[in-house]
Design goal:
Elements lengths: L8 H15 L5 E7 L6 H21 L1 H11 L9 H22 L3 H6 L3 H19 L9 E7 L4 E6 L1 H4 L8 H12 L3 H19 L15 E2 L1
Parallel strand pairs: 1-2, 1-4
Antiparallel strand pairs: 2-3
Helix pairs in contact: 1-9, 2-4, 8-9
Length: 227
């Protein structure tokens, strides 16, 4: 399920050249970032493990005779008179085993990601994109015209985050065409071509609203950043 970044040096060079070309007609600065995944989702694994433990306790409460009979057969058919303390100890052991087993199973990243609800995945990707933008692009240009194209492979999710000068003039829905062009290429397995298509579309929009001045300088790196 999870996709790994598979880019050659030639791909990275093509993306950088596409960014450079897109910036040739605008004062805007485009930053491209790609990552394997935007979050570890360990908290989601903890929640599922807790749910499994609770369900085990519920099952024990609903059908105690069945589970106690299983234990009796496991120890050779000797019937025990269970005291309240022993019952609570058994319940604690069952819950702990269920929690631990589920946690170990969810160490497998693809399953952990698959069990993470899509709204949570989308929110984590957006949060990571915003964090990367704040670190690498926000307010780092003279006219505050930086924009980030962020791609998270495992979540199959992309984000475009723009600095305040851009958001003040360009409606966020305008970037939908760039996103569609990128996703169409990535869906065909062409990750580099997807980033190139997005950079080209973003460059067209930026050139319309922020044309390049004669004394404009390149303020942010054109290379593809992998995190």
């Amino acid at each position: 399920m999870a996709k790994q970044i598979q880019l050659t040096e030639a791909d990275r060079h093509r993306v950088a050249e596409a960014v450079r070309a897109a910036e040739s007609g605008t004062a805007g600065e485009i930053v491209t970032i790609i990552t394997d995944r935007s979050d570890t989702y360990h908290d989601v694994a903890l929640v599922w493990s807790a749910v499994a433990a609770v369900l085990a306790l519920v099952a024990l409460a609903i059908a105690p005779d069945f589970y106690l009979g299983l234990w009796d057969r496991f120890i050779g058919g000797w019937t025990l008179e269970w005291t309240p303390r022993q019952l609570f100890e058994l319940a604690a052991v069952v819950a702990a085993l269920k929690f631990g087993a589920t946690w170990l199973i969810l160490l497998w990243k693809p399953l952990r990601l698959w069990l993470t609800p899509r709204p949570i995945r989308n929110a984590r990707v957006r949060a990571r994109a915003v964090t990367c933008f704040k670190v690498g692009a926000e307010r780092r240009t003279h006219g505050r015209t930086g924009i980030l194209i962020y791609l998270s492979m495992a979540e199959h999710r992309a984000e475009i985050v723009a600095d305040e000068a851009i958001t003040g003039q360009v409606n966020p829905e305008v970037w939908g065409h760039a996103m569609a062009s990128m996703i169409a290429e990535i869906a065909k397995g062409n990750t580099a071509d997807g980033l190139i298509a997005a950079a080209r579309e973003v460059g067209v929009v930026l050139a319309e609203h922020f044309p390049r001045a004669e004394n404009d300088v390149n303020e942010l790196p054109d290379r593809l950043i992998e995190v």
